[in-house]
TrEMBL record:
Keywords: Aminopeptidase, Hydrolase, Protease. The lineage of its organism: Bacteria, Pseudomonadati, Pseudomonadota, Gammaproteobacteria, Lysobacterales. It holds the Pfam family Peptidase_M24. Residues 18-186 form the Peptidase M24 domain. The keyword Protease applies. The keyword Glycoprotein does not apply. InterPro entries: Creatinase/aminopeptidase-like, Pept_M24, Peptidase_M24B. SUPFAM superfamilies: Creatinase/aminopeptidase. One of its GO terms (molecular function) is aminopeptidase activity. This is Aminopeptidase P family protein. PANTHER family: AMINOPEPTIDASE, CYTOPLASMIC PEPTIDASE PEPQ-RELATED.
Length: 228
């Protein structure tokens, strides 16, 4: 256990089970990705995702499933999607899942492109690259949560993308982690502990209506398979 009260966990917390929840969540996300087709709406995609959850033995969701398509990829978690948007032939979308396995939380997100759209592909790849650059800074430089997000914003700008500061990172743990009231990662003034925090990265094109999202556990063991 860690001394910082904002990083508290329950008596039954198991770091191995948390890593397993992460791994299984990534498997679910990629199965959903395999079923995404042009023409699908976000509501249809979420209904399909629920079927995938059943196939994978998901115990429950701990936050609403989010699948954003096209121009909706620039919106934050709290903003409503335009319900008329459907996945185009040359388009992008992201998936954000909060799943529970063995009473431990997984939280994963990634952005994908269908058809041919080099700019959207570049945006998706930039979100992944920025995540790993920030995660490396966490490992190597001992930055606190505030400094990590300041660094992320600076690097996004240097890469030519708009950084969404309303997407702020958060705690994770044994379900429900929320009883410990850890707050957001960008407001955390200590060095985040291994296996306690989700780093969220959301960027957007500086002028065009599309963006990208990527999130994973700080302290995740190994990188999930990444493809465009």
């Amino acid at each position: 256990m860690v001394a910082e009260p904002r990083e508290a966990v329950g008596r039954k917390f198991d770091a191995v089970l948390l890593q397993q929840a992460r791994t299984r969540s990534w498997a679910v996300l990629h199965d959903i990705r395999e079923r995404m087709r042009p023409g699908i709406s976000e509501e249809e995609a979420k209904a399909m995702a629920a079927e995938v959850f059943a196939d994978h033995g998901v115990e429950r969701i701990w936050h609403p499933t989010l699948i954003r398509i096209g121009a909706n990829t620039t919106k934050t978690w709290r903003q409503r999607s335009d319900p008329t948007v459907r996945l185009g032939q040359n388009d992008s979308y992201f998936i954000d899942l909060g799943l529970v396995f063995s009473r431990h939380e997984g939280d994963v997100g990634d952005t994908f492109v269908v058809g041919h759209s080099p700019e959207r592909q570049a945006c998706a790849e930039a979100a992944r690259a920025l995540f790993h650059e920030v995660a490396d800074a966490w490992r190597q430089r001992g930055l606190n949560g505030e400094a990590l997000y300041a660094f992320a914003g600076e690097r996004a700008a240097a890469m030519g993308w708009r950084f969404n500061h309303a997407t702020r990172g958060h705690r994770i743990g044994d379900y429900p982690h929320a009883v410990h009231k850890g707050g957001t990662l960008d407001a955390f003034d200590a060095h985040p502990a291994d296996g306690r925090w989700i780093l969220e990265i959301q960027i957007a094109h500086p002028t065009e209506p599309f963006g990208a999202f990527y999130e994973d556990l700080l302290g995740g063991q190994g990188r999930p398979g990444m493809a465009g």
